[in-house]
Every structure is written in C-alpha cells, then in structure tokens.
Specification:
By secondary structure, the chain is mainly beta. It has a single domain (2-142), classed as Ctag/Cox11 (Ctag/Cox11 (Pfam 04442)). It contains two helices and ten strands, in the order H-E-H-E-E-E-E-E-E-E-E-E. It has helices spanning 2-9, 22-27, and strands at 16-17, 35-43, 49-53, 57-60, 65-74, 80-89, 97-102, 108-110, 115-124, 134-144. Strands 1-7-9-5-3 form a five-stranded mixed sheet. It has a five-stranded mixed sheet with strand order 4-2-10-6-8, with no helix packed on it. The two termini are 22 Å apart.
Length: 147
C-alpha cells in the first residue's frame, strides 16, 4: 500500500534495483555533463549505530559506473539486523540513478561492537533531464528481524 501511494503521489523517490549490468554501463559513452551526487544517512539515536558514507558528495557523469562505500558500526550491546531504505531527491531523479549493487538490497547483521564497510555501485542514466544538476541519495537505517 505504501509503495502504491508513493507512486501515485510521486513522493519518496525510490531508486531502481537492477541486476548487475556493468557490461552495459561500460558500453555507454560517459557524458561530459557534471552532476553533483550527495549521500546522506539517517538513523535513530536509539538504534545505537554509526552509519555514514565514506564520501559525502561527488561529481558524477551520466553513463559512468561509480563504486562507493558506507560505514556502519553496531554500538549497541547486542547483535542487530538492520535494513537501509533508500530515497532520492528530487523524486524524478530516481528514474536515472541506477544501482547495480547496494548494501540496501539485503538486510545487514552486525554483532555488538562489529563494524563493516558496505558497497554501493551505481550509474546515472544518460537521459537525466538538464534541469537536474544535483541528486541527493538518502538512506534511512531501521532495525528489522532477520529472516
């Protein structure tokens, strides 16, 4: 219901999840156009985790593949499983930021005190309208139950 409501209202720019298509991306000729991509993270203080991008902002070119990492540390006194929910602003940009690999595709479990670097691989589709000069990729971290 939530996904349907967001789609109808055009809010909460969820990002496309696609199978790894690195070969398809390498066949594209990167465009010289500069797009600023900002990475933002949020999580509840009650969660007891550190969670942030290792690179907060970057310049990207449509058609070029990028690999980034996010850092997560479980500071709670117990094992926890979390899920990162992505969104993008402006919402229309979600159709053009294509993730080929992302920590958000799966739940992440860390033991108490454990930390890890989590991967994100993406590209910007060449059809991104000219009016978009900046895209903000945001992840919200939530506790969930392991499956």
């Amino acid at each position: 219901l939530y996904d349907t409501l967001c789609r109808v209202l055009g809010i909460n720019g969820k990002i496309q999840q696609v199978e790894s298509r690195a070969a398809d991306v390498s066949a594209m000729a990167p465009l010289a156009r500069d797009i600023r991509v900002e990475m933002v993270t949020t999580n509840s203080e009650r969660l007891g985790w550190n969670f942030y991008p290792l690179v907060g902002a970057m310049t990207a070119h449509p058609g070029e593949l990028y690999k980034l990492q996010f850092f997560a540390k479980n500071n709670s006194g117990r094992s926890m499983t979390v899920r990162a929910i992505p969104s993008i602003t402006p919402t229309a940009g979600a159709n053009y930021l294509v993730k080929t690999d992302c920590f958000c595709f799966q739940m992440q479990t860390l033991e108490a005190g454990e930390s890890m670097k989590m991967p994100l691989t993406f590209y910007l589709a060449p059809g991104l309208p000219e009016k978009y000069q900046t895209l903000t990729l945001s992840y919200a971290l939530f506790e969930t139950q392991p499956q």
